[in-house]
Amino acid sequence: MAKVLMKGNEAVGAAAIKAGCKYFFGYPITPQNEIPEYMSRELPKIGGVFLQAESEIAAINMVYGASGAGARVMTSSSSPGIALKQEGISYIAGAELPCVIVNMMRGGPGLGGIQPSQADYFQATRGGGNGDYRHIVYAPSSIQETVDIMMESFDVAEMYRIPVMVLGDGMIGQMMEAVEFHEPKKRELQEKTWATDGTKGKRKPNIINSLFLDPQECENHNIRLEEKHKIISEKEVRYEAEGIEDADVVCVAYGTTSRIVKNAIVECKKEGIKVGIIRPITLWPFPMEIFDKINKNAKGVLTVEMSMGQMIDDVKIAVNGRFPVHFVGRSGGMVPTPANVIDSIKNIAGGVK
Amino acid sequence: MDKRLVIVTGHYGTGKTEFSVNYAVKCIEKYEKVCIADLDIVNPYFRTRERKKILEKLGIKVLSSSIENTNLDIPAISPEITGIIQNEKIKSIIDVGGDPAGATSLARFSKDIHKVDYDMFYVINANRPETQSADKTIAYLKNIELTSKLKVTGLVNNTHLLKKTTVEDVERGHKLTKEVSRLTGLPIKYESVIESVAENISNLDIKNKIFPIKLFMREDWMS
């Protein structure tokens, strides 16, 4: 198929449908409205269901129900809407159900604004829901990557029976870029023998639940979840790393911000400063091990975010005291410029050259 | 020559704003007073108003929301827009939001617009998934006319893939626009092409109406 020009949000919808998603439950919020708009137009055409719920809380619980019945289902929202969905996400993770959740982040806290932001890193990777749960978080940096990840997310969610979040900033949702649709690599998917899709008189009823009143049973459940999290951490980490082995300064950035950083790196190279980049594609699991490959003589690591500094916590864990970790960021809907980043890089590089 | 009042419509995401901004910049070379009005109530990002500073430096007046300096996504439109529709001394460009949904904000002004001579351009991008065939492209055109209560007077081929646009993209878009023109009887007004690609166009059909554009709305780091 030839390349077409799509807006990030539309591309999310198109990719989800191509990946077999048949159900969408959500509630409108800028800057992700083109996703529900697209789904409301396209899902009925393929015999699917689009439903605008009365609230985000209702929407995520509809996702919980549909997923429990074995359906391929998703929801999308933006920051404050995702905040409302946190309880449901914890329940879905607790009941070990697959689903895909898209967050096109906007400025916060509270209602914040409608311009792009990355201030939901904590919410996405630490979770606003209760309990020892985790879910996979993908952070695409282009519309093409958003499409590729969306196409794969449903399989990943079903393979591990875990919620998958696709975390974009508003810019990823609103930007237009050329895309094409490719089939993702095939994954071994088990039959959904756990789904509440009718016993047909042949088996005992399945029960979807996250309640374990016996503390020992509840702990066993948590141990099992943790084992699953470990497997995911080993097998599903994804990142892009470039020029870090001989770098004077290594930048860490994800999503839209990583593109601004790459632009800054090109400028720095012209002036003889060697700058590498680590771009986490999965925020959880976070690509800790690649930090071991950073040049031992590097002057420092620079985290760049559209927030007041959130991913920097994971960067510090990964760096483990080996280098000073610096930060540059804009928040509230402001986008950093390559010039912001170049200044910080030069400060860190100091007398290099 | 185009009418004093030019309205720019089209399917969502075809590049109306980029064309409108470039058109306004071109107009200031010839007209003393140029005003561009942002009627986009559909998009929260990439709106004309974001380039207000650059345009005003060039002497172009920018009208948008009646609520100054905000990123609110509420459909507040400046009442001054009626003024630029009526004022014969101002070369006016109205950048309308995409699709019939975007054109609803235009309907409110249709009575005033009917009283003056106007051009309404319909921007076509053959690389958008929803407007790859003439039938679908015309369906959007008709619905925009119905919603806005105004008639399209000319077509603009704006087929592109942003900075990755090739001559082939432009040619394919030209073919589609020509077909739309044949079926509707509407003339092709412009072949809007990013400057670097415009140099390489050899097809005379396209060359005769070429309108080279700069990308005002894309940041340097965008593709």
What's the CATH topology label of chain B?
A: Rossmann fold
Q: State the low-pLDDT regions of chain A, or none.
A: none
> Any low-confidence stretches of chain B, pLDDT <50, length ≥5?
none
Question: Radius of gyration of chain A, Cα only, in angstroms?
Answer: 21 Å
User: How far apart lie the N and C ends of chain B?
Assistant: 34 Å
Structural class of chain A: alpha/beta
Give the helix proportion of chain B (percent range): 25-40%
Question: What do you see in this structure?
Answer:
Chain A is of the alpha/beta class. Chain A has 2 domains: 4-235, Rossmann fold (3-Layer(aba) Sandwich); 240-349, Rossmann fold (3-Layer(aba) Sandwich), CATH 3.40.50.920. Helix content of chain A is 38%, strand content 19%. Chain A has helices at 8-18, 34-42, 56-68, 79-94, 121-126, 143-160, 170-174, 215-235, 255-270, 312-319, 338-349; strands spanning 4-7, 23-26, 49-52, 73-77, 99-105, 136-138, 163-169, 176-179, 239-242, 249-252, 275-280, 282-284, 300-305, 325-329. Chain A has a 7-stranded mixed sheet with strand order 3-2-4-5-7-6-12, with helices on both faces. In chain A, strands 9-11-10-13-14 form a 5-stranded mixed sheet, with helices on both faces. Chain A has a two-stranded antiparallel ribbon with strand order 1-8. In chain A, α4 (79-94) links the parallel β4 and β5. In chain A, α1 runs parallel beside α2 and α3 (56-68) runs parallel beside α4. The radius of gyration of chain B is 16 Å and the shape is globular. Chain B has a single domain (5-213), classed as P-loop containing nucleotide triphosphate hydrolases (Rossmann fold), CATH 3.40.50.300. Chain B has 9 helices and 8 strands. In chain B, α6 (134-148) crosses α7. In chain B, β6 (154-157), α7 (167-184) and β7 form a beta-alpha-beta unit. Chain B has helices at 16-27, 52-57, 80-86, 99-107, 110-114, 134-148, 167-184, 195-198, 204-207, and strands at 5-10, 34-39, 60-63, 91-96, 118-124, 154-157, 188-194, 210-213. In chain B, strands 3-2-4-1-5-6-7-8 form an 8-stranded parallel sheet, with helices on both faces. The termini of chain B are far apart. With 223 residues, chain B is α/β, with parallel strands linked by helices. Chain A binds chain B through residues 3-7, 10, 14, 30-31, 113-116, 142, 170-171, 174-178, 259-260, 262-263, 333, 335, 338, and chain B through 12-13, 43-46, 71-73, 125, 127-129, 132, 160-162, 164, 219-223.
